[in-house]
Amino acid sequence: MPEMVADALVILKRNLIKFRRQPEMLIGYTIQPIMFVLLFVYVFGGSIDTGMDYEDFLIPGIIVQNITFGGALTAVGLVEDLNKGLIDRFRSLPMARSAVLAGRTLADVVVNLFGVIIVILVGYVVGFRFSTSVPEVLYGILLLLLFGYAFSWIFALVGLYSTSAESAQQIGFTVIFPITFISSAFVPIQNMPAPLEAFAEVNPFTLAVDAMRHLFVGTPAGDSVWQATLWSVGLVAVFAPLAVMKYRKVSAR
Amino acid sequence: MPDPAIIAEGLQKSYGKVEALRGVDLRAEAGSVLGLLGPNGAGKTTAVRILTTLLEADAGSARVAGLDVKADAKQLRGRIGLAGQYAAVDENLTGFENLDMVGRLYHLGKPTARERARDLLERFDLSDAADRPAKTYSGGMRRRLDLAAALVAHPPVVFLDEPTTGLDPRSRIGLWETIEARVAEGTTVLLTTQYLDEADRLADRIAVIDHGTVIAEGTSDELKSQIGGERLEVKLRDTADEEKAIRALGGICDDVHAEFPLVTVPGHIPVADAVRALDDAGVAIDDIAVRRPTLDDVFLTLTGRPAEEVEDSDA
């Protein structure tokens, strides 16, 4: 096994142990999407005309929004490791330079998969149903995890530049939260004011959400599936090297 | 003679306008302990970070365990251990899991990593706590675990950055004994400390560092003799006897305290001889003692200020 993979797996294991020992973290992580599903379906659902069942419209949107925030765990975890001197320890070891970040972001994938399952289960309770083939659903979940993985790398970079866990989370929420809303996640973008609609159309969230709707409930795909895939790969290709570069120079505070 | 385990020449490092290191030379022979003594902000931690490949120097060069800290960084990381003032252990992992993880990251292989983890927990008196998350450990236990992590790969050179800062006296002595045991086995140690007694006890040679430069270097005794060696301190019953006492003790007086009947005479005078001489001269004394200079005195003499009176601003 290449050294980099072996090292990353050691770090992955370490992070998964942490989730197991701090289940309250995961509870917090799952309550938010459940709340969002219930609020949107029952509070806004009746007033939003999407031309289809709102549950089927909403669940792909919520699931995409939720997965982008999974990466916040990476930012928070890295800031903690920096402040506690663990990153110094790792950097003084003869391990691969990318392994700490790779193990960290891979741990997010595991947690994200858990989150995806939760949202789908809650979706089923409120009336969401898959209406596509099994391979389409599986590709959808794979694409979701890839999209979430891309955001884990963005959050990794944010975490390495942050001085506190709070500030890292704050950056995540103030930047990413609005962007997820100015997309097709919760409402059809045709009803937005023209400038917002123009933004929403090119927003990668819209692409990801449209791709998920196509793969889960069979709405027309357009170019969304391959474009969302390309965006995910592209974001990893840009942000992973940037984060590793920053990691090589980062110092404890 | 074998190469020194640590050799640094002309290390310089600036953070913006702050010059953390202004040309530092260090040297530690294999199997010895080099103490880097200085107040907070002196540049000790910066020097350790450069020697452990965490930071690149702006100028100068350093070799550790025969390897260049810049060119052979990756290889060097396999031959050093680092433990620090922050006790860098993963609180969510048990003691065993922490050491096992570090062993795996040193690429020892699974069986060896596990064996070393168990062995070190035993030797560091942590066996009972081996399967408890480190967040339940006391401060002293965490430091021991941190130090154990630095030793997992049996590295020939170990860096300890203020290993006992913030520990209670008992834990400090325990940690000192552990370090001494490693050194007895041939490990080279570079130890930074702001505690003079710590350097005095552990270090074979001491480099006193202040404002990014080494202002003195030598054994503890050499440093002490720089400021005059031993003195005899005599506490008189009556201040009026001062002149008489000084004459009886050879005529040289270092220090006469105006409002305090205390006479300090430099040089090595056996106490018994001094008592006899004072008695013959009819001088009554309350107390007499040989006073050896402490590293506190050294620091005061070298820098013009006590070691403790420095603002906390380590870069």
TrEMBL record, chain A:
Protein localization: Cell membrane; Membrane
Record domain ABC transmembrane type-2: where: 24-250
Record-linked InterPro entries: ABC2_TM, ABC2_TM_bact-type, ABC_2_transport, Nod_factor_ABC_transporter
Xref: Pfam families: ABC2_membrane
Main location: membrane
Transmembrane segments: 26-45, 57-79, 100-125, 137-159, 171-189, 225-244
Record keywords, A-Z: Cell membrane, Membrane, Transmembrane, Transmembrane helix, Transport
Membrane topology qualifier: Multi-pass membrane protein
Family: Belongs to the ABC-2 integral membrane protein family.
The protein's name in its UniProt record: Transport permease protein
Automatic annotation (TrEMBL), chain B:
Signal peptide: none
Family (UniProt): Belongs to the ABC transporter superfamily. Drug exporter-1 (DrugE1) (TC 3.A.1.105) family.
Domain ABC transporter intervals: 6-236
InterPro entries from the UniProt entry: AAA+_ATPase, ABC_transporter-like_ATP-bd, ABC_transporter-like_CS, ABC_transporter_ATP-binding, DrrA, P-loop_NTPase
Topology class, membrane: Peripheral membrane protein
Protein name: ATP-binding cassette domain-containing protein
Annotated localization: Cell membrane
Broad class of where this protein is predominantly found: membrane
Keywords: Antibiotic resistance, ATP-binding, Cell membrane, Membrane, Nucleotide-binding, Translocase, Transport
Pfam families on file: ABC_tran
Residue ranges crossing the lipid bilayer per the database entry: none
Any one GO MF annotation of this record: ATP binding
